[in-house]
Amino acid sequence: MNANHHDCSSVGALYIRVSTHEQNELSPDAQKRLGLEFAQNHHILIPDDFIFTESISGRSAEKRPEFQKMIALAKSASHPFDVIIVWKFSRFARNQEESIVYKSMLKKDHVEVISVSEPLIEGPFGNLIERIIEWMDEYYSIRLSGEVKRGMKEKALRHGYQTAPCLGYDAVGKGNPFIINENEFKIVSFIMEQFDLYGYNPSQIARHCNMRSYHTKHGNPFDRRTVLRILENPFYAGTVIWNGISFEGKHETRYTKEQYESRKAKLHTQLCSSNFRSTSPEKHWLSGCLKCSICHANLSYGGSKSCRTFTCWKYAKGIHPTSVSLSSKKAEAAVKEYFNWISTILSISYDYKNSPFLPPASAELSFLQQELHTLALRENRIKEAYQKGIDTLAEYQENKERLLKKRNVLEKKLSTISQNTNDSLLPSFPEKIQHLNVVLNLSCIDNEKKGLFLQTLLDQILFDKKANSLYFDIFIS
Asked: In a 3-state reduction of DSSP, which class is residue 387?
């Protein structure tokens, strides 16, 4: 389709991108002006909401939020526009395989990508020219990336500063040594003091920082990992590292090499300590249901084999100011007691012999829904594998087609069951409570099934450590 074929009723989108390292391309304002002129000349209306602009380097479309927003809108049910205008095809994609994938996705919804500066003729010859342009753009991008990396390597070898400054330092440009930011360095000094003098671990230090409303270089709260990076960073002792190249910098330092080495040894001892408690890989039937009443984060299942506990992960990472933990035995007993109490109030008698878990139709319905959820996760994984270059385009398309066939079969079965199932046969809320009391005490039912059934009854269970109470948010309908 040629742009000249669009009439005055056509609605389009304008995509503008400028790479931060390219100096010879049009500015965003120039791209916008020329794009809007092109649209007007070809009778294409572009509303302000459909102008997508970003200044970002990188060849991967996955790392361009405005691009992803535009693609999602183009493929939405409302289908608000049928053409995307770019200054050059390289603004749309620099990777040919990526370009083909996204353009193919758009063509299925009759959305065309048009370049203002690279007009194409219709037919096979026009498609060939488009492929050649994409090949040249990809070659240029790879070559430019290589030149940029070589330049950065040469800069590092000449002892130039080019990494993003860490907390406590500011960049001055042109490869010159970073200078100290006194306000930020107070936080660095506090962290070093807490570790060196008082022996606090990174999680404890993170909590102390957050209690004082300190923030990281990017303005975020501290957690265990951010504190660990600061303690392990040799820059504070004078060593600059870029991509495996290290040199002794000329920036001002306030810590010695001896202090840095002592700190590393102490960290190693802490991390290898036998008291370290990790999260258990085993999944409990309450996993995903128990949440912290303060921050609403999930309580992670872990602890030692002799004492399993649920702990707020934000506290474990140093984000949360207060310890929130509950032993698994107490949690299990409290949940069972709560639902026993509800069933007593409801006074429902139910025959478990014929249906100890769910009626047949409802069980199959739950199974199919779980299968579709698993399938969606697999679809995301193969997409990520392609985008990261693990799978080729051909492998991605083959896997996608295979999963699509399976999705169609599952959705067809789900539709048939949903149409044929009489809602009156499905268990009511009181009946589900009775089912749950049996399910939670049956050893033949695994934790995953117990957890899935529990989640059909409640949204979450909030644990208030201070009040030593659980608060249940249940679905009564």
From this structure: helix
For residue 170, give the nearest of 182, 158, 160, 156 by alpha carbon: 182
Q: How far is 6 from 11, CA to CA, in rounded Å?
A: 9
Which residue has better confidence, 123 or 210? 210
Q: How far apart are CA 191 and CA 201, in angstroms?
A: 10
Q: How large is the average pLDDT for residues 7-34? A: 75
Any idea how long the chain is?
A: 477
pLDDT at residue 24 greater than cutoff 70: no
Asked if residue 250 has pLDDT above 70, the reply is yes
Confidence of residue 145 (pLDDT cuts 50, 70, 90): low
| pLDDT score at 170 | 94
DSSP H/E element including 85: strand 83-86
Determine the Cα angle at 372 with ends 410 and 402, to 5°.
65
Q: Quick one: which H or E segment has residue 474?
A: strand 469-474
Burial class (CB in 10 A: 0-12, 13-18, 19+), 15: buried
Residues sharing a CB contact under 8 Å with residue 172, sequence separation 6 or more, in sequence order: 178, 179
Sign of the CA dihedral 392, 395, 400, 403?
negative
Q: Where does 272-392 have alpha helices with state H?
A: 313-316, 328-346, 360-387
Mean pLDDT lowest among 5-14, 320-329, 333-342: 5-14
What are the residues whose beta carbons fall under 8 Å from the beta carbon of 231, sequence distance 6 or more? Answer: 191, 192, 195, 202, 263, 267
Tokens representing 459?
């949204």
CA pair distance 447, 449, nearest whole angstrom: 6
Distances 214 to 217, 229, 234 between C-alpha atoms, Å: 10, 16, 22
pLDDT single digits (tens) 75-104: 887 888 989 999 887 767 755 556 667 777
Token look-up 């258990």 returns 280
Q: In which region does residue 56 sit, left (phi positive, over 0), alpha (psi from -120 to 50) or beta (all else)?
A: beta
Q: What distance separates the 2 farthest-apart alpha carbons in the chain? A: 82
Buried b (16+ CB within 10 A) or exposed e, 337-366: eebeebbeeeeeebeeeebebbbeebeebb
Pairing outcome for strands 112-115 and 458-464: unpaired
Phi and psi at 331, nearest 5°, equal -65, -45
